[in-house]
Design brief:
Number of domains: 2
Strand content: 25-35%
Structural class: alpha+beta
Shape: elongated
CATH topology of the largest domain: Beta-lactamase
CATH class of the largest domain: Alpha Beta
């Protein structure tokens, strides 16, 4: 008679975690349209910076003309070179006649002058200078066309999947297009990749060549927590805005495009940011390394193993749905020994009304060795007499 039992029939164990500890980064999720707010913007995209949860997506992946929102990418290219050490804020670029003659919004650089990178950053961010953007493009790549090609390449590299750039300014050009989603991605990468340089976006005013100009971001200094980013406008594109704000430790990124006036741009931007902060909150479930639960082990030197997460888990959910959130641990068990430390053995499942369920892997905190012969015989006898695991 074989007294060494095989693994009993496996079952799917699901353990509801009552009162999950609210203490950290979750996979991106989208809130259902049932949670949406109406907006007159042609395109609108609102996302939580920390969790990647999309709170509002109205035509966010449709191609549209960006106008001067393009300059966010121009600035990203410049910041990237400052970070890698190939440029400094004290370096200068030469002003060509092509840059000097460009129409539209201006920094008012002088032809054949040399302008510092520090001043050019202000001239693009605060004054939205087309002349400054072209000076940067020519200074980095030799020509604006070559720079635009590099902009598109960099866009793909940082996760902007659809945008194509034909110039550094946002001047109307065939095939020069972005999406609101891509602009939100660009805003996120700018803040994340260049936390020190990003502070330039909060500058309220800049004077160059005796001309004082105010930052064109209508929410900067007027809406709580807003510390950047950029506006844009052409007849075809309408009025657009990328804005980001931080309140009570949370940061939201908003993109609106296709509005009919500066007033609409300001009021819609304010309304959507206020809604995002008011209706949603971030709930910190577990920190990296926290013991979430335990799982049963079969024929191991321990009958159970602690389950831990390898990441901070934070969820952005509607405040009113917090009480209905369900958190459970699911695994196929009992888990046969041996179990290695760090082995994925279970899943944390989070269910929230109006959102798709989210799942996160759970791992064995420690190893569990397989019982030796004597131990297995003892477990077999116990199993034959009482049934169940060897825990």
């Amino acid at each position: 008679m074989n007294l060494l039992p095989s693994i009993p029939c496996k079952a799917t164990f699901s353990r509801l975690l009552a009162g999950a500890v609210l203490l950290g980064t979750a996979m991106a999720a989208s809130v259902s349209h049932a949670q949406s707010i109406e907006t007159i913007a042609r395109e609108a995209y609102l996302v939580d910076y920390d969790t990647g949860t999309v709170l509002l997506n109205k035509n966010g992946d449709d191609l549209a003309e960006p106008a001067s929102l393009t300059k966010m990418m121009t600035i990203y290219m410049l910041f990237d070179r400052i970070k890698n050490g190939s440029l400094t804020l004290q370096d200068t670029f030469h002003v060509s006649e092509h840059a000097w003659k460009k129409g539209g919004s201006k920094m008012f650089v002088e032809v054949n002058s040399d302008v510092s990178i520090y001043d050019l950053i202000h001239g693009i961010i605060v004054q939205s200078g087309n002349d400054a953007a072209i000076v940067v493009a020519e200074g980095i790549a030799g020509t604006e066309d070559a720079f635009a090609h590099e902009m598109t390449e960099k866009a793909r590299e940082i996760g902007m999947t659809k945008s194509v750039f034909k110039n550094a300014t946002g001047w109307p050009a065939e095939g020069h297009v972005v999406t609101a989603h891509d602009l939100a991605t660009l805003a996120h990468r700018t803040i994340h990749d260049f936390p020190e340089l990003y502070k330039f976006y909060s500058e309220p005013v800049f004077t160059y060549n005796g001309i004082r100009q105010h930052n064109r971001n209508p929410l900067l200094g007027t809406s709580a927590g807003v510390d950047g980013m950029k506006t844009g406008h052409t007849e075809a594109a309408g009025y657009g805005l990328t804005a980001t704000a931080k309140r009570d430790g949370r940061r939201l990124i908003l993109v609106v495009m296709g509005l009919n006036s500066m007033r609409e741009r300001r009021t819609e931007g304010q309304k959507l940011l206020d809604w995002g902060f008011r209706e949603f909150d971030n709930y910190h479930l577990f920190k990296k390394g926290d013991v979430v639960s335990t799982a049963d082990v079969w024929l191991g030197d321990s009958g159970k193993v602690d389950l831990v997460t390898d990441q901070d888990i934070t969820l952005t959910i509607p405040r009113k749905d917090r009480k209905d959130m369900k958190v459970s641990v699911v695994y196929e068990g009992p888990i046969p020994a041996p179990v290695s430390a760090g082995q994925q053995v279970a899943t944390l499942k989070v269910e929230i009304p109006n959102q798709d369920p989210q799942s996160f892997p759970l791992y064995a905190k420690t190893g569990v060795e397989r019982l030796g012969l004597v131990g297995r015989i003892g477990a077999a006898i116990k199993y034959l007499v009482w049934g169940g695991s060897n825990g």
